[in-house]
Amino acid sequence: MPTVATTVSPSVPDTAPAVSGRAGARPRRSSATLAALPLLVFVTVFFGLPMVAVGVGAVTVTDRATDTTTLTADNLTRSVQGAYLDALTSSINLSLITAALGVVLGTLLAQAVVASRLPGLRNLVVTASGVLANFGGVPLAFAFIATLGISGVMTELLNLTEAGWSLYTPAGLAVVYLYFLIPLMVLVIAPALDGLRPQWREAAANCGATGWQFWRLIGLPVLGPSLLGGFVLLFGTAFAAYATAAAMVGSVLPLVTLQIADALSGNVLIGQEGVASALALDMVIVAGLVMAVYLPLQRRSARWLR
């Protein structure tokens, strides 16, 4: 009997808390799932169903005479040929250039703000960046047309037309895109710049490192994931922009978003109604690739913010 008492009694307090912990974790997990249910419903209705519609429209064609729908790859093939391929290539090139310029200029502006000791400057710039990063569409196009268009104020004041300037070119559209891409980069990179601790610079200086050596060996490697993440985010934003380009250049410049709008408005040959869905699916694939690169980089850069 004494042997039994000493063997059984210690196991009771060890088992009870574990069972109680698992029992307590289940209600918390259920509560978390229930709290996320509205988000899941929203994503399913406003993202999932349109994605299914785009995917089905991209791989099917309907014969109006017999009202039959068949599977086909013709829409996807046409979306990467001829004028559609030119539009896709032009959109990618414009997005790459504007994203690269936005990363450089936005990082320099953010570094100047972070390094500044002026009180309130950071809050002012961050607040303005939050507003300007979401300022686009027709109002932004009108503002640039009134300022730098053919009869714009600055165009006539500085005789920009004689210098070869035109707002309705890829270069002019890139300038307009930078108006909201640079503030977006400031919002993305400013927290990462705050993660560069002053102790690192002081330690590098004590070891005899110059400013360039600090940035080359410490600063840029630390900021690398954030810079690359900002680049892919700016690329995706420029790639998906539509309203500003439509209001400014219309169909003058071949862009994939403008081609989708033309196809949706019926500006396609009979039997090619699914080309718009195929172009949209191409954009979804490009956006998916961008997010696949951005999310791991964002998680890695977040380590320096802790």
TrEMBL record:
Q: Which GO terms describe its cellular component?
A: plasma membrane
Extract the ranges annotated as region (Disordered).
1-24
State the compartments where it is located: Cell membrane
Superkingdom of this protein's organism: Bacteria
Using the record's annotation, list all stretches that form the ABC transmembrane type-1 domain: 88-294
Segments of skewed composition (Polar residues): 1-12
The family database entries (CDD domains) matched by this protein are listed as: TM_PBP2 (cd06261)
Q: How does it sit in the membrane?
A: Multi-pass membrane protein
Q: Which UniProt keywords apply?
A: Cell membrane, Membrane, Transmembrane, Transmembrane helix, Transport
What GO terms in the biological process aspect are recorded for it? transmembrane transport
Q: Where exactly are the transmembrane stretches of this chain?
A: 36-61, 94-114, 126-151, 171-193, 231-256, 276-297
Does Lipid metabolism count among this protein's keywords?
no
Principal subcellular localization: membrane
InterPro entries to which the protein is assigned, alphabetical:
MetI-like, MetI-like_sf
Q: Which family does it belong to?
A: Belongs to the binding-protein-dependent transport system permease family. CysTW subfamily.
Instruction: Supply the name of the protein.
Output: ABC transporter permease
Q: Which organism is it from?
A: Catellatospora citrea
